[in-house]
Structure formats: structure tokens, C-alpha cells
Amino acid sequence: MVEPLASWAEPAQLPISADGRARRLAARWLLPVQSPPIEHGAVLIGSSGRIEAVGPDALVPRPQGVPVVDLGDAIAIPGLINTHTHLELTGLEGRIAEREFPAWIRRLREIKATRSFSEFASAARQGLTDCYAAGVTFIADTGDSGAVIQALSEADGAGIAYLEVFGPDPSQADESLAGLQTDIARNAHWATGRVRIGVSPHAPYTVSGPLFKAVADWARTERLPLAVHLAESPAEVQFLFAGTGPFAKTWLGRGIPLPPSKGHTPVTWLAAHGVLSDRSLCIHAVQVGPEDIRLLSDRGAAVAHCPLSNHMHGHGKAPLAAFLDAGLRVGLGTDSVVSVGKLDLLAEARAAGELAEVPADMLLELCTLGGARALGLDSEIGSLTVGKWGDCTVIRPRSASGSPARRVLESGPGDVVATYLGGREVYRAP
Predict the structure, then answer these.
(1) Is the pLDDT of residue 122 over 50?
(2) What residues have CB less than 8 Å from 352, skipping those under 6 apart?
């Protein structure tokens, strides 16, 4: 299918970008995601960095002066969208021996406390480079150092950087909110171009009810996107439902009062504090039942599904099929290298496919358009569609058999040939 342009009548007059964004990519297979696969397809990206034509190679214009890139037998797909990363933790792989999740969290906080901002910044830059090499063009990152939004901005990248806030003691809610507001103000100047800033009240076991409500209310007023680690572990459920378990022990050991209301699931707890809305991204969402899923759907919240991290920590399997049946917006995330070792979104898609009977083209959609929908950005990214950003990942599959989507899913970072962000080449395989 060819998506027409008014400017096709005079293609030679298309402006040429000084920064190398305008280009024409042709490949054996083009998988637009939002429309059927195109054998011997091409995509034309204009100087604005947005897509101006998509279709069979013979029908897509060849404007004078626009570089033509013939990708041969490769498969071109929309840039992958990673809906949950912690790029400031790059380089910490294999540093934590603790297996019990609360102890793992405590050890991670201890390690982070020893890192300087320059170390976080170097880690974030390397993490972003690794994302490009793995075919990821857009990230939704959570962290508290501010290093990732700076790295994104400096690289003219694309993503949402959610700045974290912690504060389990209700008496310190105002102070914690003020600290978050200061962090947002200090980093707001980095939110330019395709870089956005958001907030992340970390999790129910690190944030008090009053702080959750205060952050959610403020984010709503400022129209900031919100991300929260939710219903990740059995220990989190134990903490909120019965006021027992390792998280409760930690709070009591620090002299922090437990949440006053028991009998809550993590989802109902956040709903009670006004956290869930169509601007909320719920990370993990493993420990959820039918009523929780219904509540998430009713509030319009989205889910960042991280199957490999969930497995590594022994949290269980998130009910992906139930999410999709309920019409929830679901994207895939890798979590941090501390959890999974390597940021491989296609491996996450394969793992997701093992949790639910999802066809290959839908798994690919979860990596692309699904992630865009989860982040509320499906009008801008997630498919090779005229008017959207020219984010494109090129993969040389390992196998010549199977559907193009299946062959992409069987690939990994080592099979990525090139990655384009708004038409600009940000990675080329050596």
C-alpha cells in the first residue's frame, strides 16, 4: 500500500536536510506494522525527519538530492520502543548477589549511593548507545539522578525521562514533593525536541499514600506523564494486604508507620490515592487479578510488561492475555541491565509470546505501536506511516524461512544493521 503525498507531483523540490535526516530506505521487506507487510518496499523520510511516503519500491518517489539507501535482503521495521529502562544503571550488571527482592532493592540503593553524577551520566550515555545498537529508538526511562534526560537531550534523542521520588514516611510527604518539584524544575530545560519529562513515585513499598496522592495531583495539574512500579512482587501484595512481610519489617525497623488501610491490592491502593489515569504507566503489573485488570482498564492506565525481569526476580508471570483481552494499552520493557544483563527488546517479545498465545505480528506490534500507545504517542511513533517520525530499525534476519515478522522476532541486537531516528542514522553495524 502506498500512502500518497501532496508533494509527490514535484518530488525534486523536497528540501534536503543539512543534518542528514532526509533519505530513502529500500529493503526486501518493509513491515509498517499499522498496515500489511510490503515486499520490496521503501520509505521516504523528509528533511523534517518525518515520513513522507511508504509503499512498494517502484512507487515511492526518488527526490533529487535525497540519499538512497538500498538495504538489500534486510527487513525494515519501525524503531523499537522500550517502555521501561533504567539507563543510569548501565554497567552494574552482575553487581548484586542478593536473590530476595527486598534485599536486592536495598543493595541496589546502596550501590547507587556510591555513584557520582558523572558516573550516572556516563552510564546513561552508554545505555543510550546500547539501545540504538539494539534497534531501540524511543525509551521510557525511570531514574532519580537526572542523567538520562541530559543524555537524551545532548544526543538529540527521543524519550520520556520519569524522575523518581521516594518517601515512605507520611510526615515527609510535603518535603518529598518539594524535592521532586525542584528536580523537575532543574531538569526541565533538557526537555526539548523529542525529549519529555515525567514523574515517577517509585512504588507502593517506597512511597506513602499521602505522597502518592500529592504527586498524582501535581502531575495532573502540570500535565506530566506518570510512571510507577506496581504489583511487581508477592512481597508488595503482602505488605499492602496484610501489613506483613519484608517490606513491612523494613518500614517498622525505620520507625515508619504502616499504611493505615489493609486489605488493598497494589492496584486498588493506587486507585484510592488518585494515581491511575490515562497518563499513568504501570510497570510490571504481575500480581494482579481480574478486578485489578478491570480497574486499570476503567481508569485508562497502561502497562509496561517486562517478562524477563519478572522471571529473573521470581515474581511470576504477568497475565498478558488478560491485559490484551481487556483492551489495556501494553508495551514491552527490558527493565535494567542489573535485572536482565542485556537490553534486548526482541527477547522480551519472545518471552511474552511464551506467556500468551500471541501471533508474531502482534508481538512485533507490542515492541512498536503497542509501546507508542502505552505512552500516548501513537500519533507520532510506532509505525511506518506518513506523517509520523522516521524512526526505523533495519534487521538482517538469521533465517530465510517463516514470515517476516517471525524472522524479526528470532533476531537480536547482533542482527541490527542500522537504526534511524527521525531519518538520522544513529547506529550502523560495523
Answers:
(1) yes
(2) 305, 307, 320, 332, 358, 363, 366
Give the span between the Cα atoms of 374 and 384, in whole angstroms.
17
Which one, of 204, 208, 207, 211, lies nearest residue 232 by Cα? 204
Nearest by Cα to 161 from 208, 226, 116, 211: 226
Whether pTM exceeds 0.70: yes
Angle at 18 between CA 139 and CA 124, to 5 degrees: 25
> What's the rounded Cα separation, in Å, for the pair 307 and 257?
33
pLDDT digits (tens, 9 = 90+) for 281-303: 999 999 999 999 999 999 999 99
Rg (CA), the chain: 22
Phi, psi of 33 (to 5 degrees): 80, -50
- Give the C-alpha separation, 17 to 37, whole Å: 28
d(C-alpha 227, C-alpha 219), whole Å: 11
Residue 197, H or E segment: strand 194-201
* Residue pointed to by grid coordinates 511474552: 352
* Measured distance between the N- and C-terminal CA atoms of the chain, rounded to whole angstroms: 33
Q: Is the pLDDT of residue 15 over 50?
A: no
Give the Cα separation of 131 and 410 in Å (integer).
18
- Determine the Cα–Cα distance for residues 243 and 260; give it in Å rounded to an integer: 9
DSSP result, 276-324: -STTEEEEE--S--HHHHHHHHHHT-EEEE-HHHHHHTT-----HHHHH
Question: Which residues, 6 or more positions from 337, have their beta carbon under 8 angstroms from its beta carbon?
Answer: 89, 90, 91, 92, 93, 127, 343
